[in-house]
C-alpha cells in the first residue's frame, strides 16, 4: 500500500500538478500574453454554437475585429458551415479537444487522438491545418510539453467567468474594461453547453463584448488573432535585445545565469525530495557532506543473479540508495562540460563507497540486508565499481522512471536538453545491485575500489550513476 500511494502521488505530481503549476505561474512553453500597445486578442472557447456563434461573428464583423476560436471537435463536426465562415471572415481556428475533457484524466495517446481528430474536422471544413491548441480549462499534462513542435499551446491573461449567467452583462463589462489594454489575451465563451456553464451565458457575454469593442475603438485598440499577437510579440522582443559586448560574451561563455524557470523547477524538485525523505524516513550515510541517502525495504521484482553468483529474490531486504539532489544539481551547475560532470561524479563515488561499507559495518541492524539497490541512468559507470547492472522489467515503474530521469537530466546536466536530443537512448533506466558481502570485501579495508579500465578524462561518454528518488 505504501508503494502504491507513493506511485499515485509521484505520477499525479509529475504528470499533471507540476506541469500545470509551471504553465500557470511562469507560462513555460505556452503563450498567454503578448507585447503590444495597440492590440489585444479575443479568444473564444467551447463552440461553435448554432445560436451564439453567428451572432458573435456578426458583432466582430461590425467592429472589424479578428479573433481566435478554440473549437470543440464534436461541436465543430456538427456545424462545419460555422468553421468555414470563421475562416472566410479572417479569424483563426484552434483546437480545444474533440470533447471537453481535462487532459489530466486522459493518457498521452488519447490526448493525441483528440487533437488529431479535431484538427481533421477543421481541415475538412476550411482546407487549412491548424497547430494552435488550448487544452480544456487550460490544464496541461507532462506530454503536452512534448508536442511543442506539433502544437502551440495558448492560454490567456484575462478570464472573466463569463460562462455563468448570473454574472450578468453589466458586471462582465466592468471586469473586461478593467483588463482592456494592449497585449492582453481575453478568454471568453461562445457556447454554454459544457459542464459547469449556463446555456444562455453567451448572450450576456455578447452584450458586454459590444460595449468593450466600442470602448476599444475609442482608445485606439484593435483585436487581432493569436498568431498575429505572437508574431508582433516576437518582433518586439527581438527589438529589445541588446548585443552584448565582447567582454560580456566572454563572461557569459564561462558561466550562464540560471533562468527563472530553472530556479522554479529546482525549488519544486528540492521540495519533492524533502517530502520524499519525510514520507519514507530516509537516512543519510554522511550527514556532514551528504552524497547518498538510503532506506531499507523488501525487494519486489524478478529474481536477479548478481556478480558474485548470489541471487536476489523477491522479499529479500535491500538498502535502497538515493543521490542527494541538491549536491547533484550543484555539481551539474559547476561543471563546464558533460565530461567534467562525469569526472566529479566518479570522484565522489570513489570517496563514498568506503563510507557506505563502514556505515553498514557499524550498524548491526543492517546485517539482514542482502544488497545495495538503486535505479540509475547508465553508461559505463556502476559496473566498474562492482555493481550488477540489469534492465528494469517493462511496465509502469520502468516507464515512469524514464520520464523522471529525463526530467532530472535536463535540470542537472550542463547540456541536458541538447544532450537528450542527441542521445535519447542513454536515458534507459537500469537496476543496479551490489551484494553487501562484495561491498565489505572490496571497500572496507582499502578505502577505494577504482577498477576503471579507462581514465575519466579519456571517456567520451559520462560514466555517471544517477539514482532517482522514487
From TrEMBL:
GO biological process: carbohydrate metabolic process
GO molecular function, one term: hydrolase activity, acting on carbon-nitrogen (but not peptide) bonds
PROSITE patterns hit by this protein: NODB
Residue ranges of domain NodB homology in the record: 38-224
Keywords from the named record: Membrane, Transmembrane, Transmembrane helix
InterPro entries: Glyco_hydro/deAcase_b/a-brl, NODB_dom, Polysacc_deacetylase_ArnD, YkoP-like_dom
Stretches with biased composition (Basic and acidic residues): 447-463
SUPFAM superfamilies reported for this sequence: Glycoside hydrolase/deacetylase
Keyword Glycosyltransferase assigned: no
The protein's name: NodB homology domain-containing protein
Annotated organism of origin: Paenibacillus antibioticophila
Organismal lineage: Bacteria, Bacillati, Bacillota, Bacilli, Bacillales
